[in-house]
Amino acid sequence: MPSEKSRYEPAPPIPTYDEATAGDGSSSISPWPPSPSPADTRPDHETEAQSLLPHSRPHDQSRAPAGYRPPHVETDDEGSEWSLDDDDGSDTNEAAQVRREMQELEIEDPLSDSNSSTSSWTKRIGSRFSLPRWKWRWRLPRLTVRLPRQSDSANEEEGGESSETRTRWHFPTPDITSRDLALVVGRLLALIAVFGTVYLLFISDLFGNVAQRLNNQRFDPEAVRQFVQFSVDPEQIRESLKHFTSFAHIAGTEGDYALAMDVHNSFANDGFDQVAVDEYYVYLNYPKKDGRVIEIMSADGKKAIWTASLEENEVGGETAGRQTYSFHGHSKSGDVKGPLIYANYGSRKDFKRLADKGIDTKGAIALVRYHGTQSSLGLKVKAAEMAGFAGCIVYSDPADDGFVKGEPAPKGRFMPADGVQRGSVSLSNWIIGDVLTPGWESKEDKPRMKLDQTKGLVQIPSLPIAWRDAQILLQHIEGFGERSPKSWRGGVPDIKWWSGNSSSPIVHLKNEQDADEKQKIWNIYAKIEGIEQGEKSIIVGNHRDAWAFGASDPNSGTAIMLEVARVFGELAAKGWRPLRSIEFMSWDAEEYNMIGSTEFVEKNLEVLQKQAFAYINLDGAISGRDFHAAGSPVYHKLITKVIERVSDPVNNATLLDLWKDREADLEPLGSDSDYVAFQDMAGTSSLDIRFDGESHPAHSSYDNFQWMESIGDPEFVYHGLLGQVLALLIIELADRPILPFDMGNYAASLGRYFGHLSHWVDEKGINRDGNRKLNFSSIKHAVRHVQRTVSQFEKWEPYWEQNVIALNGLEPAALGVLRLDYNTRMSTFETDLLDLEAGGGIPNRTQFKHVIFGPQLWSEYDEAYFPAIRDVIETEDWPLAQSIIDKTANILYHAATALIPE
Question: Which residue has the higher pLDDT, 302 or 821?
Fold first, then answer.
C-alpha cells in the first residue's frame, strides 16, 4: 500500500450513469437495435445511481424498476399441483427470515485486506439477489392400482387369510383418470421446456456472460477505481527509478539487457497471465573511445591547434559505471576536413540564406544548434548534406537551453556548459523502425536492405558537442563570411556572430564507430486476459533504453508503468479481471528510431488493426509540473473525466482545474515516440501523457537520479500523480462496458483539421486570384458526412443505458452482443482511416498509412494534418494532388458509413 505521503483526499468520483444521463435520453431517430416498448421510469428522487457494471448495493436503496410486478404463483390452497411451500405453511416465515438474514449479511469486499477484521469496503447483498428458499414439491398424481382379490370363502378354506390379502403375481392395467394423465403430460412438457432452455442458454453463451457478471459482481466499480488510484506508491516508484538509473543502458548493450530482465522479472512477480520476451535483430551503431575527433587545424592543415573535449564531466558516480560517450545514433562513419560555417538551426531556409549570400558550402563543416525552426536532429544533418556540407556538428546553445534560460544542472533545469545532448540522426519522418527492414519485422531470418540502399540514414558524419566547445569554434570564424542576423545569434558568451565561409579555419571531424546490422534487442510484454473480449487489448507502452542514465527520459515512465503494473497484478490476484485484455510493453531501441515498438507493430500489423482498442504511451513522463496529454480526438472526454479525480497537493487543486487555468487542451500527437507506429501505421487510437512544461538536461549524463531527486520531482509527487492518471485511464478503457471514446469530438476535430489545411493552401497561394488548381469540395462533403453519421451513431449509447436501467442493471444477451459490436465499430473508425490499398499511404513514405495524422516530409516533431496531401502539393504535381484529395475524401466517407450497420 502507498506510504502516508502518497495519500490525498480523493476528488469527487466519476459521475454515475444516472448522473451522466440525467434528463430525457430518448431519441426521435431509431437506432439499429429494435426499440423496446416504453418502460415506466422512477421519479428522480427515487432513482438509484447506476454503475456501468452490476454490483451489490445496500438493501435499503434497492428497488425494482418502476412498472415492475412480481410474478403470481398459485398456492396449494388455490388447488395448484405446483407448490412453492410445504403443506403446513411453515416455510413462509422461514423464507422471510432468510431474506432478512441475507439482507443483513455483510460480505467482505475482495479488494480489502483479508487479514483485517473489519473492512471499509464492505457491501450488502441487494434485495434483487435475495431469494426465498423455494421448495418445489413435484407432486405426481397418486395412481391407485386395484388388484383382484380372492373370494372370502376360498381364503378361509386355504387358511383363513383376511379378505384384504393382495395377489403379487398379477399386474392388470392401472385405472388412470384423464386429469391424472393431463398432469403427467404437463409435467413432461415442463421438463422438456426446462432442458431446452438450458440447451439454448449454452448455445447462446449466456452462461459465459452470467459467469462474467458473477465474477465482476464481487467488485464494485467505484471501489476498483479507488483501489488502483490510491494503491500507487510514489516511494516504490522512487526506488525503481533509483535502480534503473544506476547504470547506463543504451539499446542492445549489457546494461540494456540487464534492465530488460529486471522488467521481465517484475512482470513475472506481479503474476500476470502471460509474460514474454520478444527479440529483434536491428541496425545499431556505437561510439569508439578514440574514434571521435573535432579539432581546428593549422593554416597549412598539417596539425591540430585545438581539440574539442567532446565528453561531459564525470557525474555518474562510482556505482554508475562508465558514462556513455557523446555521439549520434545512426550517424555516418567518416573522417572529413573542411572550412567551418555556422548555419543557425540547420533548417533548409537557413542553408538557403547562406547560398543567397554567395557563401560556398560545398565540402565545408556545418555548425548548427539544437531546437529552433528545425527541431528534428536527423533533418538538420540531412539538410546540411543536401546543401553540400561534408560533415555536421550540433551544439546546445544557452539561449535555447542553458544559463540564459535559468540555473543549469545539476542545481537547475538547464544544460550546463559541458552538457552534451545526444540523439539519433535517423530520418524518422521518412522511415521508422529498423532502417534496413522498412515495412516488415526485423527477425533474424528476414531479409534486409544494404546500408547504401536505405532512405532512413544520412550520408555525412556528425557529432554533438557542448556549448563550451562551440564557443571556441565560433570565435575562430569571426570576420569570415557575413555578420549573422539577430535571429541567428545565440547565447554563447564572448562571441561576435559571423557565418564563416570557404576561407574559414579548417576543422577536422572524425567519427569512427562500431556498427552491427543484426544487433539483438529485447521487448518485454505482460498481459492480463480480459473475460468478455479477451482478444481486444488496451496496450500501455514505455521504452526502456536511454542515451545515458535517463532519469526523466525514459525511466520516469518506466518506473511509473511498473508501479501501475504491480497494482493491477495485485488486483488480479484478488480475482478481478477486466472486460478487455490489458497489456504492458517495455520497448527497446526507441532512442535510435522507435525501433522496438515499430518492429512489434510490423510483426502484428493485421492483428493490431483488428484487435487493439487503445494505446497509451509513456516516455519522458516527468520533467515538470504541468499535466499534458496528446492523442487521438477520441480521448478528449475521457482525459477530462480522469484528471478531475486526481488532486495536485502542491497546488491544492485538481489536475482538471489546473488544466483549465492554463487553457490547456488535448494536444495533437507528434512523431517522436512509440505511439507513431500504433497511430499512423496500425490505426490504433493513441494517447501520450506526461508532466512537463519546464526544461531538463535531456539526453545528457545530467539527466540522472540525483537531478530528479533534487530538482525534477524531489518528493516524487508528480510520479505518483501520473501513476494515478494512468491507472484510471486503464480501468476506464479496459473495464467500462461501453468504450469511453468521444466520437463527437473526433467528428468536430476533422472540421478543424480541414480548416487548417485550407488555411495552409491559401498561404501557398494555390487557388489565389481565380487560378484554381485544386478542388477540396469532396473532403468538405466527406467531413460533413462523418459529422452527421457520428451524431446518429452516438444515440445508441443512451438507448443501451435506458434498457439496462429498466432491467435494474441487467443486460440481456442480445443487447450485450450489440454492445460489443458498438465498441468494435468505435475502435475500428480510426483503423478505417488508413489507406490500405496496394502501395497506399503517403507517397514515397508508405509505412505511414493514416490519411489524417502523420509526419510531413520536412516537418518538425509537431503534427501536420493530411500529410499525404501536403507532401504532394509541395511537389506541385496537381493531378496527383487532386487524386489524393479525392481518395482521402473517399476513405473518410467509408469510415463513417461503416459506423452504422446495414
Answer: 821
